[in-house]
Amino acid sequence: MKIESIELAYVKILDVFKDKTINYLKTLDAAQIDEVLSNRDCEAFSTQWTRAYSEVDKVKQKENLTEIYRKQGAKLRRAIFLEVYNITLSGIMASYISDDFGLILDSLVFDYKDGWINSLWSQYIRRKIPQGKLMPTDITIEL
Predict the structure, then answer these.
(1) Are 26 and 89 a contacting pair, CB within 8 Å?
(2) Which value, in Å, is the radius of gyration of the alpha carbons in the chain?
(3) pLDDT digits (tens, 9 = 90+) for 62-96
(4) Distance CA 11, CA 15 (A)
(5) Residue 98: helix, strand or coil by DSSP?
(6) Which is nearest to 113 in space by CA: 126, 104, 124?
(7) What's the pTM?
(8) Distance from C-alpha of 99 to C-alpha of 4, rounded to nearest angstrom
(9) Which of 8, 14, 80, 94 could form a disulfide with 85 if both were Cys (CB 3.0 to 4.6 A apart)?
(10) Res 3 pLDDT > 50
C-alpha cells in the first residue's frame, strides 16, 4: 500500500470507529461490558483472533515497515484505546477494540485477505462489538 493510502486507511478506519462504535459503547453498562469481554475470551473467538493476528504478523515481518506506517498504526491504536477507555473505563475493552482496528489496518496495508478479519470488520460496520463465534465472510473490507 502506498504511503498516501496508509494515511487514507487510517482516516477512514478512525471515521468508522467514531461513526459506528462510539455511540454503541455509550449504551453499554458494566454488566454488558463484562458479557462482551467474556464472549471475546471464549475459545471460538480468541483462537480465531490469535490465528489471524499471527498470520498478519508473519506477513509484516517480511516487509520493510516504513516510519509512516509505524506512526499511523500506533496513532490509530492509541486514539481508539483512549476513546474506548474514556467511555467504558475498561482497559481490557479498550485494548481489545484498539487491537481489532489495528489488525484491520494491518490486513489492509499488507493486503492480507482473510474471511474472519472481514467478519470482524463487518461487525463494527453494523455497530456491534465482535464477540463469540464469527463466521468468515467473503465480503471484503472497503473503506
Answers:
(1) no
(2) 14
(3) 876 666 677 888 999 999 999 999 999 999 999 99
(4) 6
(5) helix
(6) 104
(7) 0.91
(8) 22
(9) 94
(10) no
